[in-house]
Amino acid sequence: MSEPMIHVHGLTRDYKVTKKREGVTGGFVDLIRPRKDILRAVDNVAFDIQPGELVGYIGANGAGKSTTIKMLTGILTPTSGEVTVGGLVPWISRLEYTRHIGAVFGQRTQLWWDLAVVESFRLLQKIYEVEDDVYKQQMGIFNELLGIDNFLHQPVRKLSLGQRMRCDLAAALLHKPKVLFLDEPTIGLDVVAKDNVRGFLRDIRENQGVTIVLTTHDLGDIEQLCRRIIIIDEGRVHFDGLLDDLRLRTGHRVRLTVELREGLSSHELARITEGMPVQWDVAEGLRHTVQFNRREVPGAEVIKKLVNALSVSDLHLAEPPIEEVVAQIYRESGGSQ
Fold this sequence. Notes:
The protein is an alpha/beta fold. The chain has helices at 23-32, 65-72, 94-98, 117-127, 132-146, 161-173, 191-208, 219-225, 243-249, 266-272, 299-309, 322-333; strands spanning 6-19, 35-49, 54-58, 80-85, 101-105, 179-183, 211-215, 228-233, 236-242, 253-265, 278-280, 284-293, 312-318. The chain has two domains: 6-247, P-loop containing nucleotide triphosphate hydrolases (Rossmann fold, 3-Layer(aba) Sandwich), CATH 3.40.50; 252-319, Alpha-Beta Plaits (2-Layer Sandwich). Helix 5 (132-146) packs antiparallel against helix 6. The radius of gyration is 25 Å and the shape is globular. The two termini are 36 Å apart.
């Protein structure tokens, strides 16, 4: 295996917070002799990310994911631990390091608010010393995948949120970085805009080999973009692996939707599957849903039983929603959801 693009070992970040006393007297005492507590936001985090991987780094609010990303981008210095990205330590080699990474932080834009979009791009070209031929090549790719030509000459402040997010992604990748850090890149976007952003990220990873670290509360992003996810809660990593493995770890409960040619009640269906460890949702008519654990009964056995006994027009077997799977990890770790 090649050297990891991102190497993290024992990463820890502590904050000193003032613990205030109650009352007026306590307030005076705090002025003279303040009490300080240590808040550990990130606790001994470790992982490696290979070149070209797209990894989802997720957690509840306050879990420590944004603090981790700020250390990976060099904005924060850790209390202890090791981080190298492309062989560089982010908070030591800041100037050189910024030439090799791109970052998009949710609703914070890196474009100049009152300038036309193209002028911001030209300024970034100068800042990163991007050659003209590389600039033209990248702009051609951005227009093909993101359709930004239509608003290049508009001031940033006049763009919709979806348009601005597309421009921010282009700006972050203008200098062809090796690594792209994304913090909530689809927040507030409509369905079409989300689809545009997700398609662009898939393409840029596949065709330019960009390593992408994605933090998001939109688990649709995770399902559509990431094979591997890292779940952090209360500053600690509680899962690091494939999304499919996460589903297996958190159980084998699935949902089978049955479309019938003739209407029946869920009670009648329950009689057909009597003795099987399955649970029918209460319903009448042609469409019914049954839930069961594949460890207790194979899906093929349930399907065979129904097809042999009923006139079935369609069947659909679905995994549990990713939201349920992640929520279970939080509950197991004792964290909040």
